[in-house]
UniProtKB/TrEMBL annotation:
Its EC number is 3.6.1.-. It is found in: Cytoplasm. GO terms for molecular function: hydrolase activity. PANTHER family: SMALL RIBOSOMAL SUBUNIT BIOGENESIS GTPASE RSGA. Residues 98-259 form the CP-type G domain. Pfam families: RsgA_GTPase. One of several proteins that assist in the late maturation steps of the functional core of the 30S ribosomal subunit. Helps release RbfA from mature subunits. May play a role in the assembly of ribosomal proteins into the subunit. Circularly permuted GTPase that catalyzes slow GTP hydrolysis, GTPase activity is stimulated by the 30S ribosomal subunit. This is Small ribosomal subunit biogenesis GTPase RsgA. GTP binds at T151, K152, A153, D154, G201, P202, S203, G204, A205, G206, K207, S208, T209. The lineage of its organism: Bacteria, Bacillati, Actinomycetota, Actinomycetes, Streptosporangiales. Its cofactor is Zn(2+).
Length: 358
């Protein structure tokens, strides 16, 4: 009997749609139910289902692969019962990925199926342009829409000046100045959020405080920051998905001290779009924007139209991204070689067994 999409228990509140339901048909036929991953703790995850919250087991992929491991925001097919088990993940339409903290060739998925990335930076400390550019590259590469939120406006001497500076660093991205203490622009921010929103930023930026304000209750742990540098402790220790009062869901993430890029070439092009546009007018197609004649990028720097810092930052992030990509390629080659060796070893064992039978 065909499954009819009715969503009687409000799973659509967490982002479930009729389109997703259609793709789930074969899983329904196998006796599985849809679930959204709220948080992950080692080999267990908290999942939201039509029956409410459940704790489910899952089998870690072998060899380990973060892209195949459940993450907050994932949609999954769950086998219900006394001991619920996550069977498979549904394809992600977006994912925030950075290089793993271990500096291995694997990426680390911070959140999945995100629609809006709120890059949260505190106005209580000077704007770090390089950090903002990294966060923007991470956000654009995910496939979601970035939104820059400058917090703690009540502690800033000239918030509008920082607003203008952030705007020049983020072409095509809205920038909003806010203050939880005074309520400034909180209603505007709430109106801008659609679908699944993730809060991303360094420790001490006020992500959890902002999240609690948007949620309407104290659900996220908050902490103090050091006066000398404005940095805070990681009060958020794991990613968690919570419904917003006005619709949609919110994912809070631990503060990011290390923001290493992983396969973010497209994101970098979006962040530094003005350099990409200028490069199209260079005399040589392979111009390195250094000493070549007819370089439109260097001409813009000399004319004061492009800060030299922007070009240096772009080059640095490109080198970092290329290094991460080379490590990934090396790992994939090693995995393929190991697979070939395993197949060869199996065949040799098979031949030896056959020869002994003759």
């Amino acid at each position: 009997m065909p499954h009819t999409y009715t969503d009687p228990s409000g799973l659509s509140r967490y982002g479930w749609t009729g389109a997703l339901d259609q793709t789930f048909t074969e899983h329904y036929e196998a006796g599985l139910v849809p679930a959204r991953i709220s948080r992950v703790d080692r080999s267990l995850c908290t999942a939201i289902t039509t029956s409410g919250l459940v704790r489910a087991t899952f089998a870690a992929p072998h060899p380990p692969d973060p892209f195949l491991t459940p993450c907050t925001g994932d949609w999954a097919a769950l086998r219900p019962g006394a001991e619920p088990h996550l069977v498979t993940l549904l394809p992600r339409h977006s994912a925030i990925v950075r290089s793993s903290a271990s500096r291995s060739s694997h990426g680390q998925v911070l959140a999945a199926n995100v629609d809006t990335v709120v890059i949260t930076l505190s106005l209580a400390t000077p704007l770090d342009a390089a950090k903002l550019e990294r966060l923007l590259a991470l956000a654009w590469e995910s496939g979601a829409q970035p939104l820059i939120v400058l917090t703690k406006a009540d502690l800033a001497a000239d918030p509008e000046a920082v607003h203008a500076e952030a705007g020049t660093l983020a072409p095509g991205v809205d920038v909003l100045v806010t203050s939880v203490a005074t309520g400034h622009n909180i209603d505007v921010l709430a109106a801008l959020l659609r679908g699944t929103t993730v809060l991303l930023g360094p420790s001490g930026a006020g992500k959890s405080t902002l999240g609690n304000t948007l949620l309407g209750e104290e659900l996220l742990a908050t902490g103090t920051v050091r006066e000398q540098d404005g940095k805070g402790r990681h009060t958020t220790v794991r990613r968690e998905l919570l419904p917003l009062p006005g619709g949609g869901v919110l994912i809070d993430t631990p503060g990011l001290r290390g923001i290493s890029l992983h396969d973010a070439a497209d994101g970098l092009e979006r962040v530094f779009s003005e350099i990409e546009d200028l490069a199209a007018d260079c005399r040589f197609g392979d111009c390195s924007h250094d000493t070549e004649p007819g370089c439109a990028v260097q001409a813009a720097i000399q004319a004061g139209e492009l800060p030299e810092r922007r070009l240096r930052s772009y080059r640095k992030l490109q080198r970092e991204n290329a290094w991460a990509a080379s490590r990934t390629d090396s790992r994939l080659r090693e995995e393929r070689d190991n697979q070939k060796k395993a197949i060869t070893s199996h065949l040799r064992a098979t031949y030896r067994f056959r020869d002994r039978q003759l």
